[in-house]
Amino acid sequence: MKSKYENMKIIYNRSKIGWYWAPLFVSCWFLLFYLVVIPSFHRMPKLKTLEDERQQPGQFIGERAENTLLRLSKIGPKVVGSAANEQVAVQFLLSEIGDIIADARLDLYDIEKDVQVASGNYLLWSMVNVYQTIQNVVVKLSPRNATSEAALLINTHFDSVPGSSGAGDAGMMCVVMLEVLRVITKFETPLTYSVVFLFNGAEENPLQGSHAFITQHPWAQNVKAVMNLDSAGSGGREILFQSGPDHPWLMKYYGKNIVHPFASTIGEELFQNGFVPSETDYRVFRDYGHIPGLDMAQTLNGYVYHTKYDRFNLIPRRTYQLTGENILALVKALANAEELENPSKYAEGHMIFFDMMGWFFVYYPESTGVIINISVCVLVCITIVGYIWIMSSSTGMFRRRIWAKFGILTALQVAGVALGIGLVMSIALFLDAVNLPMSWFSQNWMLFGLYFCPMIFGMGIVPAIYFSRTKELLMHSHCLILTVVTAVMVSYSIRSAFIIMLCIGFYTLSVLINMVTKAHKTNFLWLIPHCTCQVLPFMFYTYCCYAFYVVFVPMQGRECNTNPEILMGFFTALMVLLFAPFLVPLFCLFRKSKTIISMFGVCTVVFIIFAATPIAFPYAEKTAAQRFFAVLSTVSHTDSGYFVLPVDRRPHTVDDILFENTNFTKAERMDCDSELMCGYPIYSSRWLNAVDNSYFVPGPEPNKAYIPTLTILDKTSSSATNIKFDLEISGPDHTSIFIQPLNDTKLVDWSFTKEPIKNNVKPPYYVYWSYALDPKPLQFSLEFEHDDPDWSGGTFKIALMGHRIHDDMFITEDFREFLATFPPWTYVSSWLGSYNSWQL
Questions:
Q1: What is the C-alpha separation between 681 and 701, in angstroms, rounded?
Q2: Reduced to 3 states, what is the DSSP secondary structure of residue 138?
Q3: Rg from Cα positions in the chain
Q4: For 528-540, how does the pLDDT look when each residue is reduced to its tens digit (9 = 90+)?
């Protein structure tokens, strides 16, 4: 005789689906991702040729932009201060602009061009950014008989980082702007306001050209809005990741006119909250020009960003057409926008916006978003209560008992989610602790096993263990949890709450359909509306997830301060919580459900093992290289050699290769107590965060011709407690200066911007000085104050770090031999440098 429990179990199993259908169920969702989502992300229009222009004039011609970029990229690296940047690139742009003006409808437009040469300084991050005689190429296009002086600014940059031709960053945007200018001026294009095209020559320095224009150029005073175009990769769809701020009208024009949308509130909030280790000229225009705008950048193949692999031939050909059509449409729209006359009148509120897989664009005011989010949350609660009420009436169960069961399932769902997140975070911390992070860097499929699988396992195994047929109640409980999260996000004015609202909204729709059709009373018929209503959310969330990986995975190759596993793991867990909570419980409809779900746990273990083997080695030659900086430099007065700076989370991957069976040795860390910045030749403020992972390899002495010199011009005292030093520095065109007051003295005034002093920036004070056309020495003054009139001992210490970051001819054979020691899967940005310090 079989027990009552066994009989119930047999009946229960008969109402389940055969376990062998589970792989097919999973495969359907994988196919949906690979056959619809990924192609949608990479979909771009066909490149239009010169022949197309003859047939349909007035279009953006991608072929012409492509040909222009080929010629621009042949110039090679265009570093501020180099002849390539200050002479060849400037003349190239002027020649192209001249040709455009020659073909323009000068009866309709006034076209002016200018080469701005500017010097100045300002506070960027905690660094005083000093620039000297840098250049911008500027074009102003104005409609004849214009009644307003207001102007729209379009900005990009033509300079590049050392060693890179800058084809993607941002030569691509330069040629797009040139073609947009050509199309507008050659064909009759109605314009209400002027358009200023700024080709700035010092963005990588960083952000100097934009500051020079917006604070010094006479055309800047009439600029009312900006479109900033940049790149963090090599072509692909340009993403709009910042707008405004507080100017929702800009997003309305974007939404109405964009041809190929790619934008998200999520990206904007991630960028503005510091999750992206980068800045663009948009920040300068916003902070120093106080103008609103759109910040757009291409992000495909970020592995080559700021490397020698950023080449013309890697940019997908259709990129020119996609970006060109978008920019042309936006320029036409914004240059005729009535809001451009006085944008301050419309400066109120924020927008919620996102594209649906590039198919169409959704945007609405934040206030509308609050109403929608709250309405959906209320609808969810009403639907759940209504479902339980109907369930009680149709089954005869007491509502109190159903609510108790619902409470238990909610607790189980919370436990499952907590288990999944706990597993994901544990794996992230473990991989970083055992020096195995970033196994997914070049092989993104590793993310599936490391983070998707444990999250799905945690969410599924707890409910599967609990013997229950009420899978609908289980999903209702998860929906209620997400509803609470949505309400909390709305209360904190987090606009990205829309992404959870969509999840619970589509699920609630499926529940309502089932309730109306009474399909929820059947064994499996309810699955049809349920799965159908999950298709669109699944595609949207996996699209967002894929876009996140395309943008953020390559970025982790230049970020060493934070554990990249936590970022990848947390975001993956979040996405699983959105696209899988109403799919994972369906595994319980299959026989052997616990075994099926356990396979995700087994997969996780296998992938962790992969992470410790060569199968998951993070780097690949050319396509996903590990980045290093190497500077042949004098270090701390007496020593010389190679200063090596790894920039990602795996700084020791080359140690065995560099120091075993070679003539090179790894020196002990310098005395950081006696030398500023430990005696290392710091190049930029970003190096400050990575210096803990750096090391010094003894080597030959570099050419001393590029070592900065310090001269005391004057030393005066206005009182017994104040001393003023007048100093002069000469040297290479990129020099870092660190100033540390000593013996309780205080810096009270200097020749640069007073912001660091007013804001009580913690010493040492960092000044970055670069020049382009004029190598005139930098002269400045420092005034110190001391409470005690006794000035015995030093007043301050100053360190100068010179960098010759262009002209490879100065790299010696010894240096080349050292660089050749690095394995082929690395990319080493190298130049000559120096460190010298004085106590005054």
A1: 14
A2: strand
A3: 31
A4: 999 999 999 999 9
